[in-house]
Amino acid sequence: MTGITKIVVRHWKLLLAWNTVLLVLTAANIKLTPKEWTSKAELILPNVTSNLNADLGKLGNLKDSGVVFSQQLNPLKILSSIATSNEVITKVWEADPEKGLYKLKDFKGLFHVSPESESTVISVTVNGSSPEIATQRGNTFIEKFQQRLQELRTQQAMEQSEFIQTEVKEAHNKLLRSQTTLAEFKRSANLVSSEDQTKNLIVNINTLDAAKAQVLAESTSNKELAKLLSNRLNLTPSEAMRSVRLQENKEYQSIRQKLSEVEGSLTSAQVKLTNDHPIVKELLVHRQVLVRQLQQNISESTGNVAGVNTKIGDNTASLIRQLVLTESEATAMQKKAELLQSQVDNLRKTLKSFPSQQAQLQELQSQYEIAAGVYNGLVAQAKQAKLGAFSAYPTVQVLDQFTVEPQVSSPKVKLIVLGAIIASAFSSIAIVLFMENRNPLLNSRDIQRTKIPVLGSISPIKGLALKIQQHVGEDIEFQRLASSVSLMQLEKARLMIASATSGEGKTIITVGLANALINLGFRVLVVDGDFRKAQLSRYLNHQRRREQNLQLMVVNIRPGLDLLTPTVDLDKVSEFVARGRFEECLSVVQDSGNYDYVLVDSASINMTSETTLIATAVSNVLFVVRPGVSDRNPFNNSIEQLTRHKATIVGLVVNGVETNTQGYLYDSQTVESN
């Protein structure tokens, strides 16, 4: 924590300036930010369902349950996007009384729409420069939002209707074509229902086979009966038929009747008369004439076919009729059996053709059912098109009207102050890190890397001891440092106390080391090598005078301790040191005063150019560093410069660190020394 404090203190000016700027900006932000009031309202999405259910045949059912919520499709988010769309905000902006104060992009930021989780409620907040403006702006927003929803519903319904009507016409034409093709195939193939027709065909075939068998049996029976009658009559059916026809011939019957009468008269005449009697002769001639007429009639009736029985009676005629009828029925039954067999063959042929026709029928039937399902679905969607627009863009109702919060919503002073504090903290840390990255503080590892021995660590000097010069050096740390210096073989007994930058305590170290050497019995000359600021002279209460010419003033501070303050023109300091005149002065004073040690309190190496030049006169350097004050880069640069000028760094003194030893003077105050 001490190290962090030192780092912060090290950059306190920059941090103070930056945080002052942040403070001013924060105050200006609070002061200049326009005041705003927030108006809030809630919208609700009712449960709207159309419950569409259309049977599409083999394609299944078409169902529409209306608004559906899911992670991928949330109507509340869709409505929120529509509400904050440029189309809605632009219409609200055009009707807003403060239209000229906002650009459209900035005006859009006044509206916040957020759907609530696990509910159908949408929260709406609107900002305004006054409560009235906020409420009016919110009401206009709701109105334009409702109008936009209605526009979207109308547009969707029109687009769907146009699209579906075209599709319905195409589907209807396809359905008609499928229906016509199916009907023509059924008509050409005489196929309506293959299963029923197959059953009917099998039944018909079986029925016809049974009928044919019965007819054949009857035909056989009639043939046998006809054969029996034919044998009994000794006539074939055709002969019997001709005999019956002859028997039914009236002319033949008339001639035969006359012939019977003539023969009866002839028989009577022959009994009474002789053959030569004219009556008998006349009857014989008349009989011959009738016989010739009878033969002629038989020839004409039967065609001179043999086997005609001209002497059949009524009983024989009845048998002949039965024979003819039986033979005719047998022939008819045979014809009927042949017709039945022909029908059976045709039915069996039709039955064999059913499989191929059935496949084609099923394909045509499937095409028809699919076309019917598509048509039914499109018709259902066409009926649903108008109502379906509410599924895509549901009705939104106002649950709570716009109400304005009494307190001002912007600017939020607490948030601004908190943001400023956070910004100050992070920016201050960034500044410190940036500055430390550019020039970090010196640490123990940096000292160790130089491989320069540390001759001592000096505790912070109390305020009272700092004011009394003779007490500086009485601490044991200075005694140890003086002991270490006394053991060194210093060239010309000269030692320069230097540091990289100011504020590291080299002047105090010089005085403390001088007092410690005096306590060891040595005579010491301290030289104020800071020709510009003369820090050592001021600390020893000696005011150096500015002279045009070089003046060597040796002042006795206390027994064993003298002060040399060369007075040189500031414009000629570098020349004074570079030409060796400084070394000459040291030699003159050192020889005349018989000093054991000469301690030169130089200026900061990185602040002036003459310090490294003094190293040519005083080659031994005691380098002072102070944790929390010394910087790494100036330290490394100073070591490099001294090395380049062939100076010998005899050791390091770490100033301002707490040690376990206690001094002889006590005080609660510690101060920094230049």
From TrEMBL:
The CobQ/CobB/MinD/ParA nucleotide binding domain is annotated at 495-661
- Read off the Gene3D superfamilies from this record: P-loop containing nucleotide triphosphate hydrolases
Q: Which domain of life is it from?
A: Bacteria
Claim: ATP-binding is one of the keywords in the record: yes
A Pfam family recorded for this sequence: CbiA
One GO CC term of this entry?
Answer: plasma membrane
Q: Which InterPro entries match?
A: Bact_polysacc_biosynth/exp (IPR050445), CobQ/CobB/MinD/ParA_Nub-bd_dom (IPR002586), GNVR (IPR032807), P-loop_NTPase (IPR027417), Wzc-like_C (IPR005702)
UniProt KW keywords = ATP-binding, Nucleotide-binding
Molecular function GO terms recorded: protein tyrosine kinase activity
Domain Tyrosine-protein kinase G-rich, first and last residues per copy: 357-434
PANTHER family assigned: FERRIC ENTEROBACTIN TRANSPORT PROTEIN FEPE (PTHR32309:SF13), TYROSINE-PROTEIN KINASE (PTHR32309)
According to UniProt, the name of this protein is AAA family ATPase
